[in-house]
């Protein structure tokens, strides 16, 4: 992954994936599937 970090396209993909992961985490939390 480190090789591609300087690529703007890769950064956008990473950001998009992170956003999807965060949204999934929030959705699970709202559904009570995640214990803190």
TrEMBL record:
Species this protein is from: marine sediment metagenome
Protein name: Uncharacterized protein
């Amino acid at each position: 992954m480190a090789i591609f970090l300087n690529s703007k396209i890769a950064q956008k993909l990473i950001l998009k994936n992170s956003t999807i992961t965060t949204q999934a985490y929030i959705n699970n939390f709202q559904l009570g599937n995640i214990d803190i």
